[in-house]
């Protein structure tokens, strides 16, 4: 087990470097780099452009003092060749220094931490509600497979899966956010303007009140996958020989379900639990955040790409890729803990 873990940790390094290198190479050819963005702002034409971030000749620079261009290039580090900038970036990342935003004048770490409350709120509630509803529902569907309950619930969760989250969000705003009918829930943000003056219970209720619509829009489409996965896993275990043997011995159906079937059927869910838990925080829906005016990590990444804020793009990519690799390793470890029949040493001999 330890040898396997050591190999996986060593493999993370080239994987991480490969992802960062590929992204770094690609952005050298992306039109409208940060220097050009600044040139356009100085000329009063707004952001935008058509040249690479590395400093290729660009019509937005015409009429701007060449010395000023060199000053801006030095400010953003584009006075150095790409290879030198690449190795400087790798050295920073090795120290977990994600760099400084070009346009927000804050470190990438500070920006990520400032957006985390929104992402944690959306991710945590979406994750727990999805599992708390989908797993019991999937078990009930497996026990009553083929019944009217099974058919009706399948139709409901599949319809929810077919509706995009942002479309459902718009519908919820129109119906319950004061769009056309009633205004039961707020339109934007996680808290009200007078949140600081509220009591502790008032703050909790205000926070939950703001979360109802965005969480509903985010979670409805997630039910189908976990529900059907749970149902199929239980059905597969129910048909196995050890279940028939347990029933033949006269064991109560409840004991057969929870003592014999439950553990084996939940292996696919438990092994994917760490990835789903971590992913809920870092894969927030950009459209949901935009629709409900929630300033989270999704909106941060989107704006960084639009403005060619390369430290934010590369820094968040590095952080999220590292978290993803570690989470995948934790998932493998969970697989061994849940199913003792798995031995990594035997697999890798």
Can you give me a brief rundown of this structure?
The chain is mostly helical and 349 residues long. Among the domains are: 51 residues, no CATH class; 185 residues, MetI-like fold (Orthogonal Bundle). 70% of the residues lie in helices and 0% in strands.
Mind explaining what this structure looks like?
The chain is built from 17 helices and no strands. It has 349 residues and is mainly alpha-helical. Among the domains are: 51 residues, no CATH class; 185 residues, MetI-like fold. The chain is globular, with a radius of gyration of 26 Å. The N and C termini lie close together (12 Å).
Q: SSE order, as H and E?
A: HHHHHHHHHHHHHHHHH
Q: Determine the N-to-C terminus distance.
A: 12 Å
Q: How many H/I helices?
A: 17
Summing up helix and strand content along with how strands pair, one would put the structural category as mainly alpha
List the helices and strands and how they pair.
Layout: H1 2-27, H2 34-42, H3 66-76, H4 82-94, H5 108-143, H6 148-162, H7 165-176, H8 200-219, H9 223-238, H10 241-248, H11 253-265, H12 267-271, H13 273-282, H14 286-291, H15 297-306, H16 310-338, H17 344-347
